[in-house]
Model the fold of this input.
Amino acid sequence: MFSGKTPAPSKRSFRTSRHWLSRGLSAVAVISVAAGALLFDALTPEIISVGIFYVALVLLGFWFPQRTAVLGLAVLATLLIIVGHWITIEDKSMAWQVWLNRALAIGTIWLAAAFVWRIRVLEQELQLKIDLADSLSREINHRVGNHLQLVASLLRRQATESRSEESRRALELAGSRVRTIGNINRKLSLVTFQQASPLLIDSKSFITTLVKDVHAALADPERIEIVVSAQSAELSSTKAAALGALLVELLNNALKHAFVDGMKGRLVVTFTVLENRHVLELEDDGVGIDHGRDSDGFGTRSVSNLARAIGGSITCQPACQSKTRPGSKWRVEIPA
Done:
């Protein structure tokens, strides 16, 4: 059984909902500005310019998802300027002055419309390039993941052919590391695609997705319950990859050694964000490190080396679950 929240919606659906929201707000804004302009026209003399209201109306084109909306706003503003001439308070201004004032206002709004149109064109071109870069990045990550899996397979095959026990274990460990990094690379690509910022990884989504994948790969997932409680923090892709490798190593060690003879158990993964450091904890209710495995074995040395590689520290102590099943609690602290 796995406990965790579902990943965030994709960026595509987020953009769509954002545009629908902007469309509703923009309609309210257009009506408000247009009504304000007509009201100002009706309460002021002819000589006073109201162009600022109509320029603001055109600038609302930035809020609409379609760039053609700015043309409709410019036409609307032109009609309102002409209508405003008939409802404004007459004064002693010359007719040519009044119409020149209106003509300049119309020219101003169409100049603003051209500016908005050009900005929207550049914005859409930039978005196309960003989407293309995202697609290429995902393709590259996919190929890298495939190559890492190929290297892991070669190392595993070489390990089976090795006659030296020490060499065989070293090759198996290296293959396991490469395979782990390949899986983490795939998860980083998935989490990055789901987030608004592709340069930073959200720790909560990443850890939840990674643990869910490890749990799904178990031969009997119902036997082991894994609970995840992770806070959100922005991690660089390098730090996220190292943290993911460390977490997978801890999970594999616990699943391999903590629950012997097919016993059922529970794992709790916690990620806490503190002021100047991040804390990753893994607690199990198994047989404990002293009974389940050598405290100075390959697994223990592996997680210790990974923790030091990212500038952190790691400790392990009994979880004090019970006398028969004391469990283990690993605590990793890394700089924020």
Q: What stands out?
A: The mean pLDDT is 78.
